[in-house]
From TrEMBL:
An example molecular function term from Gene Ontology annotations: ATP binding
Keywords, alphabetical: ATP-binding, Nucleotide-binding
Matching InterPro entries: AAA_16, P-loop_NTPase
The keyword Nucleotide-binding is annotated on this UniProt entry: yes
Protein name: ATP-binding protein
GO cellular component: cytoplasm
Domain Orc1-like AAA ATPase, first and last residues per copy: 12-165
Length: 258
């Protein structure tokens, strides 16, 4: 979840309201009220940029930050995503009750046993995060949540619904639409990202190009991008500066992942 240098700053143009929402979630967590948010939107719409904004804001405010990302090739591996998130925290697992330690240990392949009860794994995860947050506020970021294995998604949804009096913020990025089962995140607070309006799209495009831009060319790129920040950043890369400044024609529109 590390975009290229400069990308977060540019792709957050026009996202003042969304940035404020992220900051409120962090503020709630810092004050011990817990914070949860599911950031939803199409590919390229700015979900990763907002998560990076959350990371930077949290780090500046003294949070510890941990992250995980759903991986399409690991969707059949139970607890793979949860392991990404929790493995750096397992040095604190000794504080958990024995049944929860055992459930988490079996889930992560650290000890032998039958498949653990997911309720116990959920409790163990919640208490492990709370134990870590005793030392200071904790931000957990989960990118590409639509690709989490179902066991991890269910456990993290369980945890998210119980962050009531903890110094923990849990922020998911979820591609929408998706054909994956994302019912684990239903009814959680969400922030849906729409395309940028024309004014913000033009401002982002101008900042990305950093060179003279013909009005007709600009309007065509804005129309092709349909408010998608990634498209606005990528489409001009296929054109020579002379074309952007008013040449004859842009190359074919770059395909943005869907």
């Amino acid at each position: 979840m590390r975009p290229r240098a400069g990308a977060p700053r540019l792709s957050l143009r026009g996202r003042r309201t969304e940035r404020a929402t992220i900051e409120r979630v962090l503020s709630r967590a810092q004050s011990g009220q817990g914070g949860v948010l599911v950031v939803r939107g199409e590919a390229g719409i700015g979900k990763t940029a907002l998560l990076e904004h959350a990371r930077a804001t949290a780090t500046a405010s003294g949070f510890r930050t941990e992250d995980a990302a759903g991986v399409e090739s690991e969707t059949q591996f139970a607890f793979a995503g949860l392991h990404q998130l929790c493995s750096p925290l397992l040095d604190r697992a000794g504080a958990l009750p024995d049944p929860q330690q055992a459930a988490l240990g079996v889930a992560f392949g650290l000890r032998e046993g039958i498949a653990p009860d997911r309720f116990l794994v959920g409790l163990a995860t919640l208490n492990l995060l709370a134990e870590v947050a005793e030392d200071g506020p904790l931000l957990c970021l989960v990118e590409d949540a639509q690709w989490l294995d179902q066991a991890s998604a269910q456990v993290l949804g369980f945890v998210a619904r119980r962050l009531v009096a903890e110094r923990i913020a849990l922020v998911f990025a979820l591609r929408d639409p998706t054909d994956r089962d994302v019912s684990a995140f239903v009814d959680l607070p969400e922030l849906r990202l729409d395309g940028l309006g024309q004014k913000d799209a033009r401002a982002l495009l101008a900042a990305a190009v950093g060179a003279p831009l013909d009005d007709v060319v600009r309007d065509r790129i804005v129309a092709e991008a349909r408010g998608n920040p990634l498209a606005l950043l990528e489409l001009p890369k296929g054109a020579l500066p002379s074309l952007l400044a008013g040449g004859f024609e842009l190359p074919s529109a770059l395909s943005v992942p869907r």
